[in-house]
Amino acid sequence: MAELVRRQDMPPPGGYKPVNYKRIPARTFFNGWTMIGGYLAMTTVAASLYYLTCKKIHHDEIENRSAMFAIKPLLLAERDREYLKQLGRNREEERTLMANVEGWKVGTWYGEPIYKLNTDDELVEPRIQDYYVHAKRREMARRMNLEKMS
Amino acid sequence: MGITDETYLPSEEELTVTEVNVSGPVLKAAAHHLGNACLNENNEFMLCRHELGDPRKCLKEGKAVTNCALNFFRQVKNNCATEFTQYVNCIDRSSSDQSFLPCRKTQGVFDKCMFDKLNMCRPAFDQYARVQVHHTDRPRPPVEGPAVYPDAAPYLPEGVDKPPAKYGARFHWIW
C-alpha cells in the first residue's frame, strides 16, 4: 500500500480566472430623449388618424339618421293605416267572441269603461297585451322580444 | 279591450290605398331624393301627427305621403331604373347595416342620372337631421295652459312683516 499516492485537487496552474462580474448592458439604439420624441410623434400621428376616422363615422351616422328621418313619414303613414285596420279587426273579434255573454259591452268590462272621463273623440291606444289578445302568445312574444324567455 | 262601439274607427275602404311595395334597401337608397321630392307632404304629415297625436286625424296627409312616394318611385323606375338597381344592390350587399359609405361610386352614377333626367339634386347629407321649418294652412290645435285652481291658498300680501319663528325650527337637525 506504500506506492498509493494521494493527490489533492488543486487550482489550475496560474490560479483560477477572475470571477466575471462586469455588467454587460444591452445595446442601446435610442437614448431617452429620442424615445420621448418618438412617443410624441407616434401619438400625434395616431391621434390625427383617430380624429379623421371619428369624423368619417360621425358623418356616416348623421347621413344614416337623415335617411331614416326622410322615410319615416312613409313608414308611419303605412303603419297608421294598418294599425287602425287591426284595431277594427280586434273589435269585431271581441264582438264575436263575447256574443253569448250576457250584458257584455264591447271595449268595456260589462259596461264599465277603462277611463270614465275619456271622450269618444279621443283614441286610447290599447297596451300591447290588449292589442295581441286575440293572437297567439308567440306573436306577442316575438313583438315584445320575449321569444327566448321561457 | 278599450276600443268601444262609440270609438270612431275609419272603415277598411278609407284605410286601403295602394301602398309602396318596396323593400328596405330600396327605401334606404332612395331616402334622400325621396325626402327632397316629398318634402312638403312629409313635413305636413309629421307636423299633423305630432300636433294631434292621433292616427285617425292624419289619414289624409298620410295618403298624400304615400301617393307622393309612389309617384317618385314610378318616376325613378321610368327614368333611372338601371342606375337605381345598381345602387340598391350595392347598398344591400356591401355592408351589414346598409351603410352609404362603400357605395359612393354607384351613388354618383345614380345622382347624375337623377339630375340629368329628372332634375333632382341630392340634398346635403344631413338635410333631414336638421330642424325643418314648415308653413301650413292647418290651424294650430288649442294649447292647454297651466292648471288654475280656484281654491288655491292666496299668497301673503305685499309688505307684511315676517317675524322669526317663535319656537324655532321644526327640524332640530337642520340649522
Overview in brief:
Chain B: It comes from Holotrichia oblita (Chafer beetle). The complex is a heterodimer of chains A (150) and B (175). Chain A has 150 residues and is mainly alpha-helical.
Give the DSSP E fraction of chain A (strand runs of 2 or more residues).
under 5%
**What is the chain-wise order of helices and strands of chain A?**
HHH
Q: Give the DSSP E fraction of chain B (strand runs of 2 or more residues).
A: under 5%
- Structural class by sheet pairing and helices of chain B: mainly alpha
Mean pLDDT of chain B: 91
Number of H- or I-type helical stretches of chain A = 3
Mean pLDDT of chain A: 91
Description:
Chain A: Keywords: Ubiquinone. Chain A: This is Nadh dehydrogenase ubiquinone 1 alpha subcomplex subunit 13. Chain B: It comes from Holotrichia oblita (Chafer beetle). The complex is a heterodimer of chains A (150) and B (175). Chain A is an all-alpha fold. Chain A has helices at 32-97, 128-131, 137-143. The relative contact order of chain A is 0.04. The mean pLDDT of chain A is 91. Chain B has 175 residues and is an all-alpha fold. Chain B has a domain at 24-125. Helices cover 47% and strands 0% of the residues of chain B. Chain B has 6 helices and no strands. Chain B has helices at residues 12-15, 24-37, 39-52, 59-79, 81-94, 104-118. In chain B, α5 (81-94) packs antiparallel against α6. Chain B starts with 11 loop residues before the first helix and ends in a 57-residue tail after the last helix. The model of chain B has no long low-confidence stretch (mean pLDDT 91).
